[in-house]
Write a structure and sequence with these properties.
Length: about 100
């Protein structure tokens, strides 16, 4: 239970049926954070007067992607997998834009 919400209240067996997928989501989230920690210094930022803007945009994109990823996990836990796919597509488009 997270933030006082039981994500599996309507269907307590959902976690057991999809526990492999929920574990995979957690592993993927951990891997994303590890990659950013290890390789964040290799992100190319624009030089000159656009450097600050470039840094701001990169930070905003990463923050949005992380928040969207967390929303996908919660939607899946609540049984809204189809709706979660729309957010996954949004993150894929964000990755393409970066």
């Amino acid at each position: 239970m997270e933030h006082g919400i039981d994500f599996f209240a309507e269907d307590p067996g959902r976690y057991e049926r999809f526990q492999q997928e929920f574990r995979a989501q957690n592993i993927l989230g951990d891997c994303i954070n590890e990659i950013i920690d290890q390789h964040g210094d290799k992100l190319e930022l624009r030089d000159g007067e656009e450097r600050d803007l470039s840094l701001l945009v990169a930070s905003a994109f990463f923050g949005k992607a992380q928040k969207t990823f967390q929303a996908v996990i919660r939607l899946c836990a609540l049984g809204f997998g189809e709706d979660a796919l729309i957010l996954v597509r949004s993150n894929i488009n964000l990755l393409i834009n970066i």
